[in-house]
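ok so I'm stuck.
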Amino acid sequence: MAEKIFPGNVGLQQRVLPMYRAAFLNHLAKACQGGLSVFAGKPRQDESIVTVHEIPNVEFVAARNLHLLRGKFYLCLQLGLLSWLKRLDPSALILEANLRYPINRLAINWMHQRRRPVIGWGLGARKSRGLFSGIQNQMRLGYLTSFDALITYSTQGAEQCIASGVPEEKVFVAVNSLSPALDKMPQRKPFEGRKLCVLHVGRLQERKRLDLLIRACAAQEMRPELWIVGDGPEQENLKALASEIYPNTKFNGFLQGTDLERCFKSADLFVLPGTGGLAVQEAMVYGLPIIVGEADGTQLDLVSPENGWHIIPGDLDDLVKTMRLAFSDTARLAKMGEASFQVVRDRANTEIMAEVFVQALEFASGGVM
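replied:
not stuck anymore, here's the structure
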């Protein structure tokens, strides 16, 4: 539970409410004395996002999401947002800081007309390049500075916001976390007398580059077990590849709860060769060393030489070499797992994430109310 308590009621908008946000929102709700209400809608049918609508201590209000266009032109109109605000009448509002949700601008104006704070929450402010980039960057800066505080997923995201012109004192970092810290790190099986186990958890998409992971395991002399948890559009292609070159691969499908915990506790190394990687923090909760490829800002905050490796994106040889290095010294591998656990315990878990949100709420309320 967050140490500080925000005295008012808080509204929080999300385009959709993924299941992995449940633990964080439960912690945040406990820190909002007047209650927490979440407004979110349904994803597009092809997104396959597992959503949740019931979280302890959280009121859920369904939005009607109108999805327009695709790719870089995508927009989402969340119908019912202003009606929700009028009914809730929140002391403070947290919105996704994303220009693709245009009705959020109306929500900001509604709150500011009543001298109430609005906090933006998002990835950061990566600069656009190319034709019309100057206009796009100016529009983004205008949008970001309309918030009374900004919360980013990572230090990299915070640096982007500050570099774009957002005052530093308005920017907060809440490392993107799925899980609370455990009281103590789970005990792991001794390395001697068994095959080591490589784990990946996440949606099976082309951008995750799990083909590289299968090929890298096939190139290891010690032939580790490879467990892949999740489902998605690349599942059949990956199964065919594994059947051909690395039968030691086990596809577990989508898991949650104790079944997923069992995988984390039984693995020895977590590998994400491509993009994404919300499960990285979850793997670190269980004391796993990490290999990541195309690291976003969150992974840069989580993975360091003390607990893992960053590899060259898309480079099979580098992944093979790094995995070989990891397996060459099991005593070092165990210490790196302990370092992962300490990172999560001390600065990257859902309780600490909620604390940062309360700090941002207090800061923004002082500047507006």
